[in-house]
Specification:
The complex is a heterodimer of chains A (442) and B (595).
Chain A (H helix, E strand, L loop, with lengths): L33 H6 L4 H8 L6 H11 L11 H6 L11 E6 L8 H8 L1 H15 L3 E6 L4 H17 L14 E6 L9 H8 L23 E5 H5 L1 H7 L1 H5 L9 E8 L5 E6 L4 H8 L9 E5 L8 E2 L10 H7 L7 E6 L4 H15 L5 H18 L5 H14 L7 H15 L1 H10 L6
Parallel strand pairs in A: 1-2, 1-4, 2-3, 5-9
Antiparallel strand pairs in A: 5-6, 7-8, 7-9
Helix pairs in contact in A: 2-6, 2-10, 3-6, 5-6, 14-15, 14-17, 15-16, 15-17, 16-17, 17-18
Chain B lengths: L3 E4 L2 E4 L7 E5 L2 E5 L5 H7 L23 E7 L18 E3 L4 E2 L10 E3 L5 H16 L15 H9 L17 E2 L4 E3 L9 H9 L6 E3 L6 E3 L13 H5 L5 E3 L12 E6 L8 E7 L2 E7 L12 H4 L14 E4 L2 E4 L2 H13 L6 E5 L5 H13 L6 E2 L21 H7 L2 E2 L2 H9 L5 E4 L4 H4 L4 H4 L4 E5 L12 E4 L8 E4 L4 E5 L10 H10 L23 H11 L9 H11 L8 H4 L4 E2 L8
Parallel strand pairs in B: 3-8, 19-20, 19-22, 20-21, 22-23, 23-24
Antiparallel strand pairs in B: 1-2, 3-4, 5-6, 5-7, 5-8, 9-10, 10-13, 11-12, 14-15, 15-16, 17-18, 17-24, 25-26, 26-27
Helix pairs in contact in B: 2-3, 7-14, 8-14, 8-15
Classes of the chains: A alpha/beta (442), B alpha+beta (595).
Bound molecules: flavin mononucleotide, iron/sulfur cluster (2 copies) and FE2/S2 (inorganic) cluster.
Amino acid sequence: MKMPSPSRNGSTKAGDWRSYERVLLPPVRDLHRFDVYVKHGGYKALRAVLTHNRKWAPGKVTEAVKASGLRGRGGAGFPTGLKWSFMPPIDPGTPRYIACNGDESEPGTFKDRQLMEYNPHLIFEGILIAARAMQIDATYLYIRGEYADWIRHMEHELAKLYMEGYVGKRILGTDFSSDIIIHKGAGAYICGEETSLLESVEGKRAYPRIKPPFPAQKGLWGRPTTVNNVETLACTPLIVNRGAEWFAGIGPEKHPGPVLYGMSGHVERPGVYEYPTGMLITDLIEEVAGGVRGGKKLKAIVPGGASVPVLRADMIDGVTMDTESLREAGSMMGTAGMLVMDEDTDMVKFLRRVTRFYHHESCGQCTPCREGTGWIENLVTRIDEGEGTLRDLDILLDLCDQMEGRTVCALADAAAWPVRNTIQRFREEFEAKCRQSIYAMA
Amino acid sequence: MPAKHIRDGVIYAATHVPTMSKITIDNKEYAFQGQPKLLQFCLDRGVELPHFCYHPALSIPANCRQCLVEVGMPIRDRETGEIARNDNGEPVIRWMPKLDTSCSVDMADGMVVRTHRTSEQVERAQQDNLEFLLINHPLDCPICDQAGHCPLQNQTYKYGPEGSRFEFLKVRKPKKVVLGPRVMLDGERCINCTRCTRFTDEVSKSHQLTIIERGVKNYPMTAPGEVFDEPYSMNVIDICPVGALTSIDFRFRARIWEMSSAPSITVTNAKGANCAYWVRDNLVLRITPRANPHINEYWLPDEDRAAYPRFNEHRPGGPRVRIAGELKSVGWEAAYARVSELLGSVEGSNVLFLGSPYATVEDNYLLGKLAASVGAPAPVYIPHVEPGAGDGWLITDDKTPNAEGCRRLGIHPVDPALVHARLEADEIAAVYVLEDDPVASGLFRAVDVQDIPVILHTYHTTNETIAVADVVLPAAMVVETVGTYVSADGYAQRVWPAKAIVGVNRTLRMEMGVSRPDSHGTPFDRWHNASNRVNCKPSWEILPAVARSMGLQSDDASPGAIMQEIAHTIGAFEGAAYESMGAHGVRLAEIGATV
Ligand SMILES: Cc1cc2nc3c(=O)[nH]c(=O)nc-3n(C[C@H](O)[C@H](O)[C@H](O)COP(=O)(O)O)c2cc1C
Ligand code: SF4
Ligand code: SF4
Ligand code: FES
């Protein structure tokens, strides 16, 4: 495979993205099969890490991941190498775990599925490299239950790996042993929240835990645990094979690397596209996804899954898909699952659907989230049905204040942000619906 | 070994001088040691903070979000560790960006805290949270058992918003759900604090309850086909901060403000678990636990609570004397005269005195004195032990509350074979029984004693020994008396009267005045009336009267004075006094009592 040129054409931080060569989802037929993957250089990184004891001592792998600038692809964008370094020193007799997060339930997000379907061994290899780096005894790969086909497929490939000695006892004849266990979800968005996921793996009701203690201190069964997204770990074989510098050279400096953009909504060619981080939003919509459907005008986008703030079409000029640029624009990178909405979109209806999701998915542990998400959906529904009042808008914004930052996990924040931002950024649409209502004067 | 003492959950050896840390709460400084949790620390010092999910005996999930406070730490120089100070020399505080749940905050030296007393932000957050808690709550307080002692009701009153802005249908959830034989759930009242499920997971470890559904539809439930029937199930009713979990037996029986509650102990077994007896119109309506960190913490077995009818049902109506083969009701003086007559007609050394592990230390002691003054051998008692019935926790094999007290008085378990032999040999000329039922217990058959006088102190008319008794003296039960019980673990605990009996006893009236105004009402409220009073007397009043009627010297003494006498004369009670027992009892071994 040829390395993509790190040169920049000045128009975008993603460099010359048109000639970018895919590395997470390379165009290789049947790459999902063990033999094909191995034939195309698969598990080379793992072999290197396990055998070049000096070059790739465990601490050096973590150093490389740090130097690569890789940030988590699960939504929060936390620097991965730094997270790994939070693991406490080895204590013989205390098992250590990875929980690999493939719960992928954020609305508008379907990129991990693409990896599981087309390049599952990159995930396994990434897990094993991380396992080596952090001296992990076992990894629980938590996969969204609705992904039944891919779970079956991955279990099949994992069985092969065990047979071929790539996982389990004395991997590849070395003295390193580590297990991978695939754990099915059962249809709850909250199980993707890292501590909730841990509870779920432990067989408990998936109520998120209070932090501290963080998973690195007390994770699965109270043992040191690192939680990483599927795509995040899939990046590590690339870093080992091609070097941290190469990785750091892709996309913007503070948020580099290849990333899977999930394009959905009113675009001509929805789908998952691999490109460097830092793509211009406009390029993604116009060039990559074929433009807004039916030649319509763009109205709004949600850049990274339903939880991140919505941007109006007039807010995205020159904005690129990375933490810094999106923060300045008033949103976040999230999962890079971009929702595109055309000029005909009813933003009240959009928000109604989003609030319904959070109402349905709140685990119900914390009072503000349990009660607030339902109340919010009631209010937005009432406005959408033409029975709202202007006061309802004030109450909605109030409820966001009452929920944000006052709960155990970030779901309440994720539920409040779209409400606050959609109302603030499309207030006239909401007011118009309220004014038409029979209670307009109230 | 150096003495140990527990403070804020941290055990210190007395020799070790712990470093003191400081915390500032609402501009007031407090010293502390170790790393206590902020909420518990505040509660211990009377700084009230609203809360629902926190319970001192359970893990801390911080899920109700009611106990929010502002928390800050002084900024320290990275290198020197010096606290940064402003121009006035005050430490510069870095406030946490979000409010924190005080229940889960570990206190640290220099920490600064603002509660609703000094922070509008906190005050507002508490109001907001209560508004949320109430939107889907049915607000059916007028028909809810919890009303009147409901943490949600009380805290809404103190910290809640004026009204509600919620204008939608409330969430519907299952109501009147029979979780098990003793506990019923109203799903709509539940505020999802998970205290009940944490109790079954962490304390009783039955794991019978879990939360089912998701989000606003959540409520606690058993696994399909499972029944919530563990022996400690009713504790979840007490810890539920709303009326979601109610007692199937007690629900809708009485409003909380119609009852008085008196501190006492349960007498179902030898554990001496602390409880409150809830009384209306001189009927005990329910029994709930009273916290005692050394004995039962916050808990009570269901079996202890189920025992309340015994204080109301089959109670006798005054003394009776057998005349021409028939038991006839008589006055107390006439009954004493008959006892004196019967005892006077036999050789004192041939009277069998049966003490009672159901009766108080004071009663048993006075029985011993009576036995000694007529020249009889020391009393013995009938043990009521069911091997295997205990669980190593709050249920013991011994089904009586005071066997240990008897033992310490020198009253030992009876030897049935010996009694039998002596009866056969006509060596027993009369039997004097403090509360017990030797016939039903099988110590002897009715025919064995039908030709000799039997004098019986009894709590119930169902006592089978009544059939052969010549004098029946109704005795006051634990809920009507004052006295001491010694638990199997050696805790001496005194009780207070919870309900009134017929007749006037100054000590009882005074003690009642002390016990009943504790949490609900005074002796002069309307429930302190003439109905349902049992015509009985405490044995510590009966026994001296019997002695006097026999011409023996015996002064009336209050149980407190009797205990003083016991402490002076019996090594196994040395140092015991009502003052030292207080409300939570005292371990006799710790105050220097021998044995
Ligand atoms: C409500 C909620 C749902 C989440 N769902 C997912 C998910 O489905 N997949 C995922 O990778 N991360 C999810 N996250 C983020 C995880 O908590 C965690 O940050 C992430 O898995 C860490 O991996 P990373 O550092 O590799 O991004 C979710 C977070 C929240 C608050
Ligand atoms: S914020 Fe919502 S989803 Fe998260 S723990 Fe609390 S109730 Fe559950
Ligand atoms: S039933 Fe009561 S104790 Fe149990 S979760 Fe609900 S409110 Fe809490
Ligand atoms: S008491 Fe419930 S969150 Fe602190």
